[in-house]
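Q: My labmate handed me this sequence with no annotations at all. I'd like to see what the chain might look like in three dimensions before we decide whether it's worth expressing. Could you predict it?
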Amino acid sequence: PGYENTRKTAFCPLSRSSKVARCAVDTPSGGNMPTFSRIKVWDPYKRLGISPYASEEEIWGSRNFLLEQYTGHERSEESIEAAFEKLLMTSFRRRKKEKINLKSRLKKQVEESPPWFKNLLNFVELPPKDVIFRRLFLFAFMGGWSIMNSAEGGPAFQVCSCCD
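A: Here is what I predict for the chain of 164 residues:
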């Protein structure tokens, strides 16, 4: 009693494609919905049907095409998304590793550089941190002082900063 209309009012999320809303309730009893043939393929590149040398645009394009083609079949969509996420995480790790290695690569390039370049870098060496902090404090103080007294006498900060 009262359960006759539950099939019609079942929760039906919209598909990824904005063209058609589908859900399991709309599927015919025969299950004529197309299924993704490479669900169990382990390699994410083969699962998405792209080359291992594919660009990110090609990966996104393949994902979007396959999701649109197999919209409504939950296992197919999950398989496509899993392969895409695996490739996305791989590229993220690679970029992160390159970012971390940038400092060591730069240091290595400096070590391999000619002697005149090393002398140039030693010539423009950074001062100690306490000197940097003292100068930072001094300029911050002068900037604050000139802002507080700007209405009285004119460009005090500019005059003080050029005399250092």
